[in-house]
Predict the structure.
Amino acid sequence: MTQETPSQPKLPPTSAIDRVTKAKFDNWFEYPVRVQPHHTDYGGIVWHGTYVSWMEEARVECLRSIGIDFADLVALGCDLPVVELSVRYHRSLQLGMMAIVKTRMLEVTGVRMNWEYKIVSTDEQELYITAQVTLVALDRERNKIMRQLPPAVKDALAKISASNK
Amino acid sequence: MTQETPSQPKLPPTSAIDRVTKAKFDNWFEYPVRVQPHHTDYGGIVWHGTYVSWMEEARVECLRSIGIDFADLVALGCDLPVVELSVRYHRSLQLGMMAIVKTRMLEVTGVRMNWEYKIVSTDEQELYITAQVTLVALDRERNKIMRQLPPAVKDALAKISASNK
Amino acid sequence: MTQETPSQPKLPPTSAIDRVTKAKFDNWFEYPVRVQPHHTDYGGIVWHGTYVSWMEEARVECLRSIGIDFADLVALGCDLPVVELSVRYHRSLQLGMMAIVKTRMLEVTGVRMNWEYKIVSTDEQELYITAQVTLVALDRERNKIMRQLPPAVKDALAKISASNK
Amino acid sequence: MTQETPSQPKLPPTSAIDRVTKAKFDNWFEYPVRVQPHHTDYGGIVWHGTYVSWMEEARVECLRSIGIDFADLVALGCDLPVVELSVRYHRSLQLGMMAIVKTRMLEVTGVRMNWEYKIVSTDEQELYITAQVTLVALDRERNKIMRQLPPAVKDALAKISASNK
């Protein structure tokens, strides 16, 4: 992965950005989780890195829900590595508790996808985590950022974008 | 952990902030790591959540280097949970590679500690990760943010602050 | 945890073993899993330690299905640490695949519970993993193996044992 | 990984086993570890799956100490997946404690390597874990067990075997 090194342009030139893939998505995807022993640390609460796994799972399942099978994408030579991650920890979750990982794509600009997260209690009364994650589309073989999203991804996003109007 | 909920003040009032613990630290602490199989994912590179573990290890060992044993602190009733985390992924690390996790406290304001990170190649020519982490001091029994840092921590920080002048 | 040290008896004397809790359980509990990116390693397959997490999750959910809430048990002062684990890896699972973790208690003898595992494809045609795990009931405060199972556990097991006849 | 399926022989015929690689190794390799927060669970002790990571790290570093770079081996098309694992948990390790992971190859028979483990206190007075792990050499491209070990591995093992006499 050689993206974002000084000697290389981080992102393709603006002209390469396909208008179709610049979209906003309104609906939250919900992914339920349960705190298992291996998620916790000495404090009896979820270890702060565990949330990164949960957010990844929610993202993969959200993509599946709109017709994008992440394993297929990888097999076709496209990866979606995380290039930025920020998390705010508001409240902690304890062993045995359930929560909902809520996620949505904030926007897709060219090959860059911004995802927003909230982790809340099942009754949505407690807020545990807020977070943002940015992915880029990477050509696995050439190990370079793609100039545009793979067709399968663009088509899926176009459909959602249309249905959101 | 009930910090940062709407019904509670996030941080103690300014008057409670001890001047002694408002300090800047110039020196980077260096913590070497090696990419082991369990750190990697299907891409043959370090999984993006693995860096969170490495940053925690570097932080604990940095505290040890200035005389603060984290396990002792926890045994005495003080925890230092992460309340904010942000990471930028510049380049990826592959199976078998070595790297240096560099960390330093950017500033300590009251019970809030800001840490800065860089993960670089052993010759410091490649930059893999930049990150920031914020901790707060938490009273484990009352599950509340402390009004000031425990004496052991304040003393250790005062010494470093003095030696940095 | 001080069990199994030379200076201490590993298990309570036979006379302390409650007959009620010596039981066999015939039915497999099924816990579905999906291979997410963080479960994989450089080989594109599930990292061999990931299965230990899945087996723990299946065990906790199996206990829940028979009325034993593991987090409640821990809050009441009883832990169920793993004292023995053995795994045979028959076939590997790849990114995106689904599988079923099948588990059942083989037998409960005193405070010792033996669990059997099979991880199979959703159509049960492929066998990925076979495993066995042994737990003991531990008094968390005294950090000693209990002389008998807590009443809540015994009652739940007695009910299943009866319904298995 | 298609080893150990009914339709395939698990291991190459005896005639394919190279005498040179049937060896016993007497010396323990020592790999020190420190219990970091992310290694622990709600009990304040090391989570039982964490030891699997430590054992993998010790194995990779032991191979490096005898001249086998695991990442190179993988790049050359040979993997060494775990096909059997068994662990006995004698005592638990707590946050902040140090320990030594001791490992040695028990024997190498054909493409099958048996490793023995002990995890002990730094003064060797406490025994935490005993374990055994079996690896096989796998041709990554064909996804089949190799008929013999790669030359680099055989040469390294022959040297050690000779120096053990």
Summary: Chain A has one domain: 26-163.
